[in-house]
Automatic annotation (TrEMBL):
This is F-box domain-containing protein. It comes from Laccaria amethystina LaAM-08-1.
Length: 426
C-alpha cells in the first residue's frame, strides 16, 4: 500500500492513506448529492468524486411530442466541452429512447431534432467509454432514428475502447455489419421480442474466415427472432464478425418454439470454456411442447447454472421432467458450485384462481429426489442452491420453505446452509 496520506480539510490531523479515502468515496457512489458535496472539499476529493459521478451517464431521448426538453443533456454537453477531461471519466453510457405520446409504433417517428442534435454532439466526445447500452421503450426501429445519431452511434460502437454492447428492443439494426467494425468487444447482450425483426444477415464472405475477430467472453441473447438461424450465422466463420468459441458466460432465452437446434449448437461451440450458463425454460402458456433439455455432460468447467421457469397453475409435469433430466446430465466431475432456480407462476385462466398449495409444490418438487440427494456427486460439491421467487409470490416462498423443512432428505443441505429460498423483484 502506498504511504501517501490525505489531510482532510487542510488539517494535519487526522491523516488517512490515499487508498482508504478513495474507498470511502467509492462506498457512497450511490448517493449523488454526497458525491457532489465531496467534490467541493479539496482537489483529492474532487478527483475521486468526479470519477464516480461521471463513470455512468444516461442520455434520454424523448419523442417529438414529449414536454421534456433535452435540458440535462445540453447541460452535460456544456460541461464536457468546458472540461474535456470529465468526458474521459465516462466508462458506461446508457442511451434510452422513450415514447411518451402513446402513438402506435407504426406511426411513431423517433426524430426529435433538439434531442438528436445534442446526443449526436455528445457521442464523439466520449472516447473512453467501455460499455454502451442502447435501450428503447417500447420497441423502436433503427431505420427511423435520426441519421446523425445512427452515424454517431456506429462510430462509438467501433471505438477501440468499447468492450460491451447492449441492444435492447431496437429492431431492424444491421447487427452483423455493426459487429464487423468492433475491435475490442468482449460482451454482447441482445433483446428483441419483435416478431418481424431482422438482424441484416450478411452474405458469405471468404475474407471473414482469415480476419482477426473480437473474441467474446460474455453473450446474452433473449427472444431474438429466428433464433436458430441467428445462431447458425453467428457460428459460421464466413458470416460472423465475432468469435464465440471461447465464451465464459452464456445466457439464453429463446422465443417459444425456437432454440431446439440453436441452443445445443451455441453451448457446444464454447463448452470447453463455459463457466456460467443461464437458461430460460419454456412453458405451456403458448401451448408449445417443452423440448428436451440440452445435456450439460460435456461442459467440464461449469461453475454456475441459472435456470428460470414460467410455470402454469396447475404446475407443469413437463417442466418437472425437464429440470430433472437437465440436472441428471451434470457430470460427477463437475466444478459446479452454484445453482439458481428462478420460478414464476402464471395462473391459468381456466382454473378456479386458487393459490398454489403445499401439495402442488410437493408434487412438482418430486424431481428433487434425485437432484438434491446429498449423496449425489453432481450436487454434493455445491456451495449454494437458491430458489428465487418473485416478491409478489411471498406466500408461495413460505410454502416452499415449509416443504423443504419437512423433507428429511434435504436436512444435510440445510445444515450446511446450501439450500435457500429468496424473494426478488423479477
Amino acid at each position: 500500500m502506498s504511504n501517501t496520506v490525505v489531510s482532510v480539510l487542510g488539517s494535519p490531523q487526522p491523516a488517512f492513506p490515499f487508498e482508504i479515502m478513495e474507498k470511502i468515496l467509492i462506498d457512497v457512489d450511490d448517493i449523488p448529492q454526497t458525491l457532489r458535496e465531496c467534490a467541493l472539499v479539496n482537489s483529492f476529493f474532487r478527483v475521486v468524486a468526479q470519477k464516480r459521478i461521471f463513470s455512468t451517464v444516461e442520455l434520454v431521448h424523448y419523442d417529438q411530442h414529449s414536454p421534456h426538453s433535452p435540458h440535462n443533456q445540453s447541460k452535460f454537453l456544456d460541461v464536457i466541452n468546458s472540461a474535456p477531461h470529465l468526458a474521459l471519466r465516462v466508462r458506461s453510457l446508457l442511451i434510452r429512447y422513450v415514447q411518451t405520446s402513446g402513438m402506435e409504433r407504426a406511426a411513431f417517428n423517433e426524430v426529435n431534432e433538439p434531442s438528436d442534435n445534442v446526443i449526436s454532439s455528445i457521442l464523439p466526445l466520449l472516447t473512453n467509454v467501455r460499455s454502451i447500452s442502447l435501450i428503447a421503450d417500447p420497441f423502436h426501429s433503427w431505420g427511423t432514428l435520426c441519421p446523425n445519431v445512427r452515424s454517431a452511434l456506429i462510430s462509438s460502437f467501433h471505438s477501440s475502447s468499447i468492450t460491451h454492447l447492449q441492444l435492447d428492443k431496437i429492431y431492424g439494426i444491421p447487427l452483423f455489419t455493426i459487429l464487423a467494425g468492433c475491435k475490442s468487444l468482449e460482451g454482447l447482450s441482445l433483446f428483441c421480442a419483435v416478431a418481424d425483426a431482422t438482424w441484416g444477415f450478411p452474405p458469405s464472405n471468404f475474407e471473414l474466415l482469415h480476419q482477426q475477430k473480437p473474441c467474446l467472453k460474455y453473450l446474452e441473447v433473449k427472444q431474438v427472432p429466428s433464433f436458430d438461424s441467428f445462431v447458425l450465422h453467428l457460428l459460421d466463420p464466413y458470416t460472423s464478425p465475432v468469435n464465440v468459441l471461447h465464451l465464459q458466460s452464456l445466457a439464453i432465452q429463446a422465443r417459444p418454439g425456437e432454440g431446439d437446434t440453436g441452443i445445443p449448437r451455441l453451448i457446444d461451440a464454447s463448452h470447453r470454456t463455459l463457466k456460467h450458463l443461464a437458461l430460460h425454460q419454456g412453458n405451456r402458456y403458448y401451448r408449445i411442447p417443452i423440448s428436451a433439455p440440452t445435456p450439460l455432460t460435456h461442459i467440464p468447467h461449469l461453475q454456475r447454472l441459472d435456470v428460470s421457469f414460467i410455470l402454469m397453475k396447475p404446475l407443469d409435469p413437463p417442466s418437472r421432467s425437464w429440470l430433472s433430466n437437465l440436472l441428471e446430465t451434470i457430470p460427477p466431475t463437475s466444478e459446479l458450485k452454484e445453482l439458481n432456480l428462478t420460478i414464476q407462476i402464471i395462473q391459468c385462466l381456466s382454473e378456479s384462481g386458487e393459490a398454489v398449495s403445499e401439495s402442488d409444490l410437493r408434487g412438482w418438487m418430486s424431481w428433487a429426489d434425485f437432484a438434491f440427494d446429498p449423496a449425489s456427486k453432481q450436487i454434493n460439491g455445491l456451495d449454494l442452491i437458491q430458489f428465487i421467487i418473485p416478491r409478489i409470490e411471498k406466500d408461495m416462498a413460505q410454502k416452499l420453505s415449509l416443504v423443504f423443512e419437512e423433507d428429511k432428505q434435504l436436512e444435510p443441505l440445510r445444515r450446511k446452509g446450501v439450500l435457500r429460498v429468496n424473494l426478488a423483484s423479477i
